[in-house]
Amino acid sequence: ARLAAMGLARGPGPAVATVAFLTIAFAVALLAEGYRATLVRADREQAAFAVPHEIVVREDLGNLLRVFDTAPTERFDELAGVEGSARPVLRVTGGAGRAEQVSGVTVLGLDTAAIENVGVWRDEWASGRDAAELAALVRPGTPVEMKGIRLPGGRIEVDVSAGLVALAAIVRLEDGSFRRVELGQAMPRTRTRLSATVPGNATLTQLEIVPPPRLIERGADAGAAFFADVRLSGPLALELRSWIGVGGVVLGPTNEGVRARVPLTLQRRSGLRAVQPTDSSPPEVLVTPRLAELAGGDGEPLTFQIAGDHVAVRVAGVVERFPATEDESIVGDRIAPAHCDQRSFAGCSARERGVARRRPRERCYGRNCTLPCALPCAGDDDARRRRGGGAQ
Q1: What is the DSSP letter of 69?
Q2: What does the angle CA 278 – CA 280 – CA 282 come to, to the nearest 5 degrees?
Q3: The whole model's pTM is what?
């Protein structure tokens, strides 16, 4: 050791070079390991952002088979397990702004718990707010369950005055799905009783007044809608007095029920619907910066379009991005939007739901996803056979 020390003292150059080389090599190795860990984390977060759950169940478009036609909610809860959760999600695509300035807007309706447990989230995406704060922003302050007229036995019956219109009912079934039921055509010279029956104890949410199928506007009348006076009577019609008209319909009460002045045009749907809690207070939502700019900032109203219907909301917060979405998006409470101006928001296209399985110390949520699933749906042969194939 003494001789080695004397040698280093007389000629330190090679030893210093060796030490410097080893130090640099060790530093480069540490840098490479840190960079690799960063890339792995980025890949994991990117995957979790696109598909923040393990399993997605969606509608089979090939067989037109809906999710809850394959298995009830309880079965999905069983698949999720004790440490997991199966959450329903509403996902639709719409546009916002005048003349649809922003198209391809993803509209997500999530339960509060799904927003709080979004899985992957960075506070800088929402100006320092965490997921729990965002969930509190969109949480309804009052009950927002959809209103309507209960139909004992699913029976719909109403008398309509003489005319050329037809009636159709939008009902909400016991399982939460919606169905359009045609009641029939009014007679041109006499009062007509129109009726239909739907399964279970359904709820009537809207009554459509359908114009004649052949409605020609020509000459001086081109572009001007014809009007018809439609009188509805009977026990059901008496309950319609508190409803409001949509699509240009003007309502007025009568001794036997309700009178409606209806524009006869094929360009839009007309009718009457139940008053909803969100009529006076639009639901609070989270939006991306471009949509917030269209609205005018936080606290301002925003109207977007889904399948030809307009939905009014209020901007509660701005997020740069939100998991499971691309480009522009609107995120709100799944139950809060009670209607789409003319029909239920939930009924616009709420056909599919997601199911998620949560790892220990990791929280995920399900959604109606257009992306491939992270994992196949293993262990549910019965549900797979009912779907007519593998899990989506």
Answers
A1: H
A2: 45
A3: 0.66
